[in-house]
Every structure is written in structure tokens, then in C-alpha cells.
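Fill in residues.
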């Protein structure tokens, strides 16, 4: 009896260990949205205090295992960076067009600080929103005063008219300017294309429809198709422009979580949901963009709980998993829904069930957390759960092999001097193969040096050195291995291991 118990216990331990290793994927996108629209805090801060606040936030995101920061830099046809095309954002100083004093560039700052921590920086831009309400004052230099005909008021807000070619042209120019001047890893758009509908109010784009639809091949009954074509035209032009400037810079979209409802699709291809849809109300055909390769990743915002009567999380994540057309699919996660009671066991939360779906569905490659700011405050122990369980070890972002499949050469000349591990990366002229980050692995003596096991991945670093922490249990021998990672996340072969005692 005792022997059977011990055998069963050993089998359980082995099963638990094998299951736990699958909980820590070597590659996974772990993003955090850092929004600035509506921010009332920055206007009360000095430049130094704001920078310290951002550094502290990034430190906490790094501890929680985040590997990509999605920072909002163009919330309302304005700029949280130095721009000659649009005025400074009101959300940094409290007044549109007013520069920070002393002068600094938030986008440049966030790029440098994110990269220092081994995290990507995605520049998050809103394509067409101009104001949030009718009390906001536009700076006299704003494009609205030079070309008011391409803007429309809807409810209490002001928007670009997506049907006006000049709206597309200006948006593309703004993004091209960012990509040209800044070392961003990606351009990120949210779900605001045509505005969210207001009950009993129509978006008044009749003038642009009459002006352009016929010559673009649309009849008077095809206004919805024309609107979708306007948004698709923007997306395609943006991707072409980005890749022409820097072919490694990715372009990602974060749409509303429902593409189409089943009841609205004659072929029954929509999800079994009942809510607003990207296709019908926002005129965004996201699966088409994925299929055609016009976007590099897709982050549907699945901000509902498992069991939601109109928009069930399980239904939607499974629908997107089946409809991703081979692209990179990350799930936009609302942190607040992770404390909802589990459907099968109300004594625990839905955290485990949601993460299990993300990691078991074959075409899902990670998460983006909303709102990213709150991770720093650890609501309901959320950051603790990421740090100690779900994002316990660092993770490489899944490689963008549709852009590049060639890894950089291995690093060379590992050495240990002045308590610091250093190495050299071969000089490469092709920017696609140049190391963008380095992955540092540490293996205790006697353990096989398997870089596929994330348990031994210590850190992603930007510069060719790493200062290890002393082992608190006393001097031990380790083998350190370093790999190079290019801008599309292809990883080099490991170089020669370095034996270190510390």
C-alpha cells in the first residue's frame, strides 16, 4: 500500500512538473497599454518628476514580466513627441501646443528606457479622433484651421472624415515622420476608425461619399462598403509606408473584440455574440488585413468575462483563434475581469481559466494588459500573480518570420571582469540582422545548457554586458550563455558558455 502511494505521488509530481513547464512559454508577447488620453496627472508634474514616474512604472512592468510597452503618443491628432506636423498634446502640459518646460521628448525617453529594460516600445496612435468633447480648445497651428473641410463633428467630438483622401494623406505623413525619426519597434493603432455610433445620430459624411464614391467604384447603396474601403486604404498605405522606411518596424491593430455577430453573416461565419461589431459599425475588416499581410499583429480587445451573455470571452477567443489566418494574434485583456468568479468554481477567479485558453489555443501568441498603468499598483495582487506564476520567467516575443527568418550570428568573446559579464557581437551592416537585444541564460553547474527552457533565461538586455547578482546561498558555479536577438526576434545560436563562480 505504501509503495503504491509513493508511486502515485511520484507520478503526480512528474505530471505537475511537466504541466508547470508549459505554463512558462519560451516565447510569448506580454504587452501593456500605457494610455495618455484623459491624463490629468502629468500636467501637475515637473519634467523630472514625470520622468521618475515613468521609470518607476517601467521598473514594475519589467518585474511583472512585460516585454512590450504600448505607449500612447498621438491620442487626439496631437503629439507626445517633438513634431512639426501636429501640436504638443494637452495631456502632457494641460494645454495643447504647450511644450514641456524644461524641454524633453516623452516618446524618445520611453524608447530609451524601455529598451534599457529589454522591452520593446510600440508607438500607439489614434488615426482619426481630434477631441474628446466640445470644450477642448485646439491650438491655432492645428490642421483643423488650415483645412476644416476634412473634419466632421459627431456628438460632442471632432473627427477626421475617413472618406477624405486628405485625412488619409495627413495620417500617413504623421506615421512616416515617427518611423523616420524614432527608433520605435512598432506602430500601434487602437479601435477608433469610424467613430463608435451614437444612437439616433448619423455620421455626416454624405459630402465625401458623393464626391468620391462613384469614381472609386461604389454605387449609392454601397456606403458601408465604401466606408470599409476607406479604412482599408489607410491601413494598406500605412503598412506600405512603414515598411518602405524601415522594413523591421511592425504595424499592429487592436480592434473591438467582436468582428461580426453570427446573425449578421449570411454564411454563418460570425461569432455567437450579440454586440457592436468592427465590420458593421466601425467599418474595419480586420481579418482581411491579417490575411493580406497589411498588419503584422492583431490584438482584439476581449474585455469581457467568461460567461458574458452577449460577448462571452471563451466564444470570442476561440473565434479569433480560428480566424487569425496565420498571423500574430495577441489578446487584449481587461485586468478587472480577471477577478470575476470562475464559472466552474466560484471560489476562485477566472485568472487561471483565461490564461489556460491563451496558452492552449494553437494560434494565440500572448496578451496585452489594459490598463497597463494599474499593473504598477498591483490591484488585487494582479502583478504578484504575473511575477510569481504566469510571467515568472522572461519571455522572448514570437519571431516575425513573415518579415525575416535569418538570425544574427552568435556573440563572441564572453568574459567576466569586475563582476560583470561582457561579450562582443559581430559587426553587421544589414539592420535586419543587427542585434537589437541580448538574451542572458544562466545554468547551474551540472544542468544541461538548454536555451529552450525559459527557467534559465535571466534577462533581456540592450547593451553587451550583464552584472549578475551574487547567489545568496554562497559561492556557486554557473555557466552563462548569451544569444543575440534581431529586430524581428530571430535568436542566434548560443555562443560558447562562460563558467563563473559568484
Amino acid at each position: 500500500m505504501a509503495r503504491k502511494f509513493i508511486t502515485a505521488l511520484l507520478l503526480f509530481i512528474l505530471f505537475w512538473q511537466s504541466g508547470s513547464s508549459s505554463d512558462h512559454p519560451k516565447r510569448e508577447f506580454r504587452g501593456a497599454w500605457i494610455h495618455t488620453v484623459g491624463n490629468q496627472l502629468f500636467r501637475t508634474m515637473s519634467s523630472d518628476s514625470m520622468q521618475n514616474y515613468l521609470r518607476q512604472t517601467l521598473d514594475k512592468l519589467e518585474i511583472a514580466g512585460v516585454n512590450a510597452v504600448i505607449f500612447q503618443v498621438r491620442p487626439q491628432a496631437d503629439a507626445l513627441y517633438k513634431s512639426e506636423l501636429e501640436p504638443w498634446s494637452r495631456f502632457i502640459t494641460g494645454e495643447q501646443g504647450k511644450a514641456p518646460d524644461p524641454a524633453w521628448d516623452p516618446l524618445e525617453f520611453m524608447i530609451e528606457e524601455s529598451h534599457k529594460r529589454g522591452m520593446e516600445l510600440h508607438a500607439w496612435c489614434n488615426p482619426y479622433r481630434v477631441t474628446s468633447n466640445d470644450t477642448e480648445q485646439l491650438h491655432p497651428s492645428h490642421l483643423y484651421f488650415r483645412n476644416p473641410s476634412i473634419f466632421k463633428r459627431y456628438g460632442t467630438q471632432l473627427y477626421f472624415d475617413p472618406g477624405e483622401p486628405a485625412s488619409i494623406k495627413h495620417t500617413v505623413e504623421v506615421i512616416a515622420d515617427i518611423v523616420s525619426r524614432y527608433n520605435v519597434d512598432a506602430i500601434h493603432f487602437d479601435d477608433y476608425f469610424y467613430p463608435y455610433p451614437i444612437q439616433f445620430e448619423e455620421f455626416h459624411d454624405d459630402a465625401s461619399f458623393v464626391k468620391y464614391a462613384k469614381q472609386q467604384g461604389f454605387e449609392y447603396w454601397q456606403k458601408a462598403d465604401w466606408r470599409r474601403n476607406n479604412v482599408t486604404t489607410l491601413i494598406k498605405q500605412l503598412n506600405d509606408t512603414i515598411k518602405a522606411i524601415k522594413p523591421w518596424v511592425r504595424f499592429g491593430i487592436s480592434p473591438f473584440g467582436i468582428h461580426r455577430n453570427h446573425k449578421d453573416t449570411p454564411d454563418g461565419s460570425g461569432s455567437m455574440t450579440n454586440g457592436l461589431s468592427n465590420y458593421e459599425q466601425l467599418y474595419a475588416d480586420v481579418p482581411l488585413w491579417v490575411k493580406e499581410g497589411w498588419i503584422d499583429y492583431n490584438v482584439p480587445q476581449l474585455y469581457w468575462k467568461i460567461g458574458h451573455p452577449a460577448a462571452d470571452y471563451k466564444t470570442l477567443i476561440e473565434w479569433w483563434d480560428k480566424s487569425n489566418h496565420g498571423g500574430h494574434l495577441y489578446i487584449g485583456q481587461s485586468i478587472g475581469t480577471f477577478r470575476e468568479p470562475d464559472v466552474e468554481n466560484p471560489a476562485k477567479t477566472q485568472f487561471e481559466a483565461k490564461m489556460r485558453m491563451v496558452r492552449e489555443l494553437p494560434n494565440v501568441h500572448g496578451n496585452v494588459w489594459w490598463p497597463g498603468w494599474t499593473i504598477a499598483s498591483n490591484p488585487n495582487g494582479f502583478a504578484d500573480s504575473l511575477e510569481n506564476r504566469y510571467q515568472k520567467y522572461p519571455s522572448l516575443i514570437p519571431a516575425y518570420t513573415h518579415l525575416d527568418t535569418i538570425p544574427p550570428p552568435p556573440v563572441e568573446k564572453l568574459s567576466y571582469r569586475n563582476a560583470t559579464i561582457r561579450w562582443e557581437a559581430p559587426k553587421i551592416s544589414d539592420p535586419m540582422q543587427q542585434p537589437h537585444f541580448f538574451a542572458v541564460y544562466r545554468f547551474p553547474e551540472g544542468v544541461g545548457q538548454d536555451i529552450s527552457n525559459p527557467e534559465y533565461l535571466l534577462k533581456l538586455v540592450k547593451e553587451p554586458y550583464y552584472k549578475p547578482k551574487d547567489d545568496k546561498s554562497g559561492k556557486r558555479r554557473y555557466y552563462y550563455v548569451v544569444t543575440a536577438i534581431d529586430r524581428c526576434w530571430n535568436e542566434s545560436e548560443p555562443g560558447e558558455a562562460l563558467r563563473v563562480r559568484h
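The CA atoms of residues 209 and 223 lie 7 Å apart.
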